[in-house]
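Please produce the structure of this protein holding uridine-diphosphate-N-acetylglucosamine.
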Amino acid sequence: MDKMVIKGGRRLAGRVHVAGSKNAALPMQAASILASVGNIHLTNVPSLLDIKTMNQLLQFLNLTVTFDEEKHELLLDAQQRVASEAPFEYVDEMRASLLVMGPLLARTGHAKVALPGGCAIGSRPIDLHIKGLIQLGATVQQQDGYIEARAERLVGKMIYLDFPSVGATESLMMTATLAQGITTIENAAREPEIVALANLLNKMGARVHGAGTEVIRIQGVNFLHGCDYELMPDRIEAGTFMIAAAVTNGDVIVENAIAAHNASLIAKLEEMGVTVIEQDDGIRVVGTAVLLPTTVKTMPYPGFPTDLQPQMSVLQLLANGTSTLDEQIFEKRFMHLEELRRMNAKFQISGPVAVLSGPTKFSEAEVTASDLRAGAALVLAGLAADGITQVRNVSEIDRGYDQFQEKLHALGAKIDRIDIADKIKLSPNHRTGETN
Ligand code: UD1
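Below is the modeled complex.
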C-alpha cells in the first residue's frame, strides 16, 4: 500500500489544470447502457480508479469499452445484448456501481445488482432509488445481498424524492428516458452533474427538461442512440486546489475551474480573507497570512458541497479563532478530524456539528485516509504542517484525483510517494535532477 510523504511549509504557486469531472463521468458511463444504436464517445475523461472500476463493470455486462487514458477518450458500445447482473465485487469497490441498475432495467427489463455494504462516511441507504423504480412500474425484491428489479414495461409517473439525492435523481432520470409517457421528478437534485447527464441523454435522443431545477420532466422515447460528449471540469478537484492555495498562503491559478460551480466555496474563502479572482482561464486564489474563522454547513447544491468539507476543515483549523462545521449530508463524515487530532488539531464534535479551534500549528504525524476526500484533506494539512507528514492508504486518493501528487509537486509542494517496499517514487523534477 502506497503512502504520500509531505514536507510541509512551502507556499504553492503557479498554475494547475483541472481534469474532467469524475462524478459527471460515472453516471454517463452507466447511461451508455441505454444506447442500443451507435457508440457513446466521451472526451476529457479523467484517468481514475473509479472510472476504471465502472469500465470493468460495463465490460462484465457485455459492453465493449475502449479507454484511451492518454487522450482521455472513452468509447462505449452497448449495441450487443447486454447482461443484467452486477456482482458484489464491483458494488463493494464503488457504490456508484449502483447507477447501472436503472439503465439495465430500462434496457433489458431486468436488473440484479448487489447491495452496497457500509461505507466510511456513514450508512448510505438506497431506498429512494428503489421507491422510484417501483413507482415507474418495476417489481423489486431484495434477497441474498442482491436487489432484483423486473418490469415488462415502465410507465412515467410523478416521483417525489424525500431528499434531493444525486444518485437517485440520476438513476430515475436515466430509467425514465425509456418509460412510456411523462415522468416528473420532484425535489430533484440540482448539481451541475445532473445538468450534464441530462444534456448527454438529450444528445442520445432523450427528452429531459428542467435539469438544474427541482422539477425534472422526462418524456419517454423508444430508444436512445450514441453521441459525442465532452465532460466539464471537476468542481471538487478545482475546489481542493483552491483550498490548497489558501492553506499554504499561496498564489495559484486553477485553470478552467468554473466559478459558478464553486460559488459557495468562493464565498467562504472570501469571508476568511482569501482573495479569489475570476479570470478568463480559470480562478486565481491568493492566500492571506491571517485567516478569519467561519461557519460552514454542507447542503445539496448550490449549498456547500460535502465533498469539500474535509478539505475545508483544514483551512478552518488554521484560522484565528473558532469555526464551526455542520455536516448535513453524511452522518459520519468526520473521520478525517480524528486523524487531524494526531496532527495537533483541537475540536469538539456534537452530532453533525464540529467546533474547530484555531489557529492550529499542524505537527508531523503518520495518518490514514479513511476515504477519498479525507485523504485529500490530510495531504492539505501536511502541506501546512511542520515537519514530515505521512498519509497512508492513498489508493483512496487515486479514486478521485488524477495525478494529485504530481500536480501539487508542480505547484512547489515537497511531496513524494512510497510503495510497500518503501521505495520512493520520485516526482518528475527529482528524476531530472531539479530541486526545489
Ligand atoms: C453523490 C456523489 C458523492 C457526493 C454525494 C453528495 C457521485 C458518484 N457521488 O453521491 O461524491 O458526496 O453525491 O453530494 O456522484 N440517501 C437516502 N436514500 C437514498 C439515496 C440517498 O437516504 O436512496 C441519502 C444519503 O444517505 C445521503 C444523502 O441522501 O445522506 C445524499 O446522498 P446522495 O445525494 O444520494 O449521494 P450519492 O449520489 O451517493
